[in-house]
Amino acid sequence: MNIIVYIKQTFDTEAKIVLDANGKIDANGVNLIINPYDEFAIEEGIRLKEKLGGEVTVISMGGANAQTAIRTALAMGADKAVLVSDPALENCDEWHNAEVLAKAVSQIPYDIIIAGRIAIDDGASQIAVRLAEILNVPSISSVLKLDVTGTQVTATREIDGGTEVIETSLPVVITAQKGLNDPRYPSVAGIMKAKKKPLQTLTLADLGMSAGDIAPKMNVDKYDLPTARQGGRKIPGEAAQAAQELARLLREEAKVL
């Protein structure tokens, strides 16, 4: 089975985010990690390979620093990787990211493509489903359980208030939800082997594309940090008196009553 796993390197949202004067995220000192949902995708791809045979190809887009995330995926057990890296991709929107990804994927045999449900940096949840549309293959999002038997695919996906079971056939695009599996940690041996596994770097020109082909249809002007929460306020006095004061504050200051 030919398995492709799309991963994205993101900044660690647990770290303090600093904005520059233009309302953009200041990359200086930011800790970059594999998007956590993509770790579920990597693990599921490796499990499919272990069960059904074949190989796992990791594909990503970004600068040279994205190689760190890719090597981690290779250390977990992926077999090879492709990095699409081009300066023109810096301001690329989700639609054109999917188009670029489709061009790269078309050069690789695949039966199933797995990605994380959402990226924790922009929260767009668009690239995988757009990719499926471009490739004209079915997609199943937010998958909690996956079974592949022959060419038949059965997936349990999360929906509002419950789950849904979907059946389709290969090829297919899957997005992984938290709970699909427990991602493994790279072993020391895996880390050493990852250094020697093939990593191919492609530019837009290699894909037959140019910067003009990916001119964004949407631009993010700036980001704003959430307003800092004010400290708590203690209301003194007996319970009845304090309750009256609380009601007054909610009515006159918070204006929620």
UniProtKB/TrEMBL annotation:
<protein>
    <recommendedName>
        <fullName>Electron transfer flavoprotein subunit beta</fullName>
    </recommendedName>
</protein>
<dbReference type="InterPro" id="IPR033948">
    <property type="entry name" value="ETF_beta_N"/>
</dbReference>
<feature type="domain" description="Electron transfer flavoprotein alpha/beta-subunit N-terminal">
    <location>
        <begin position="22"/>
        <end position="211"/>
    </location>
</feature>
<dbReference type="InterPro" id="IPR014729">
    <property type="entry name" value="Rossmann-like_a/b/a_fold"/>
</dbReference>
<keyword id="KW-0813">Transport</keyword>
<keyword id="KW-0249">Electron transport</keyword>
<dbReference type="InterPro" id="IPR000049">
    <property type="entry name" value="ET-Flavoprotein_bsu_CS"/>
</dbReference>
<dbReference type="GO" id="GO:0009055">
    <property type="term" value="F:electron transfer activity"/>
</dbReference>
<comment type="function">
    <text>The electron transfer flavoprotein serves as a specific electron acceptor for other dehydrogenases. It transfers the electrons to the main respiratory chain via ETF-ubiquinone oxidoreductase (ETF dehydrogenase).</text>
</comment>
<dbReference type="InterPro" id="IPR014730">
    <property type="entry name" value="ETF_a/b_N"/>
</dbReference>
<comment type="subunit">
    <text>Heterodimer of an alpha and a beta subunit.</text>
</comment>
<comment type="similarity">
    <text>Belongs to the ETF beta-subunit/FixA family.</text>
</comment>
<dbReference type="Pfam" id="PF01012">
    <property type="entry name" value="ETF"/>
</dbReference>
<dbReference type="InterPro" id="IPR012255">
    <property type="entry name" value="ETF_b"/>
</dbReference>
<dbReference type="GO" id="GO:0005829">
    <property type="term" value="C:cytosol"/>
</dbReference>
